[in-house]
Amino acid sequence: MGCGSFIFLDRNFELDKCTIASSIAYYKESDNNYQLLLFPEGTDRGARAVAQSDAFARENGLPQYDYVLHPRTTGFNYLLDVMRKSQYISYVYDITIAYADTIIDSEMRLLKEGVFPKNVHFDVKKYDIGEIPTDPEKSATWLKELWLTKERRLKKFYEADTHKRRLDPSGEGYLWPVKTQGFGYYLAFGFWIMVTTMWLHSIYSYYIIRLYVVVVSLFYLYVLRRYNGIEFLVMKWFAARRKPSMGAGEPPVMAAGQTICVRLRGWAFCFFTLISALLGSIYIITPLLPLIVLRPKLWRKCMDRLIGIWVVMPGSLMSYVFGAKVRVRGDMIDHSKPAVIIMNHRTRLDWLYFWNALYKMDPWLCTSEKITLKGILKYLPGAVLKKYEIERQRSYWTWMTK
């Protein structure tokens, strides 16, 4: 994800302002239009986050929510301000995610139980950037009212019978077909499983390959320590070459105790997702590093395409192996226009289901969508398995807290 130039945030507003501004400037100067996914709530709706959101509501005389967290407006306002000044935003897409039957709230639960929800619903509502107030207070009010509406929509969704749960489509009301298989899924599934197995065999069989893996791993560790990640090294080289510019309730969380055969699927999913990300960085991306210096814009396009191909793989596994269905309706997302995507954050796997939704809407969106992530995730290979126990010990509030 670092090679994909996703944005990792450190929960320090002064540092993160520089990260956001640098990233937006880089996106614009690279002549690519991206859609940046932001979770205004700052974290997923876990028990600790709910308690803190409720405390925040009580202290500020706000209603307590049952299905979302209160959004943090400072980061949202700053991001929009930077993108407006850079003339790098056309739309804001409001995404609502809802789970009809089962909630898998973390990667560790997926790893332990090997189960996916069977039906995940997305609704897309498009706003022209001109519809959003430029005044920070009015913009914050707009976001809060949007989240109040989202709470009411989710309440209606979860109060319906499980088999009748649907999100009323927004805007133009597109309804994408629901299918768990297709050529793109088969291709991604077959390609990444095959090359991951090949890479593992070559590491086991050849000393020179093992040496190569060690050298490349040390290189990425050095870049992480020296430049705070490959994405900042790329920005540094690029900047040096460019001209300056600017139900009754929710379904229950999946309980423990699945059979070993079921859990094996979760183990296999996590293994191939993590290993393909790690070895893909070593075998495919590393030989392309000279492009950072020689052809930085070509580097950016290559990385977008490669990352886009990779993110289809978890979705293909989710659909092909687990039979999970993603239901998408509402407005179209235009991959040719820069935009911000805001979405409620129910579980730590929302991003995974959203990749599947993007593929259904328009496969090119998989190459143009970027995500804002917690900074510590860059220390994990592929940023796939997020921190788990550490997360429980630290505050969920991010630098977006006003």
TrEMBL record:
Residues 114-163 form the Acyltransferase C-terminal domain. InterPro entries: Acyltransf_C, Plipid/glycerol_acylTrfase. Keywords: Acyltransferase, Membrane, Transferase, Transmembrane, Transmembrane helix. GO terms for biological process: phosphatidylinositol acyl-chain remodeling. Residues 325-381 form the Phospholipid/glycerol acyltransferase domain. GO terms for molecular function: acyltransferase activity. The chain crosses the membrane at residues 183-201, 207-224, 266-286, 306-323. Belongs to the 1-acyl-sn-glycerol-3-phosphate acyltransferase family. This is Acyltransferase. It comes from Necator americanus.
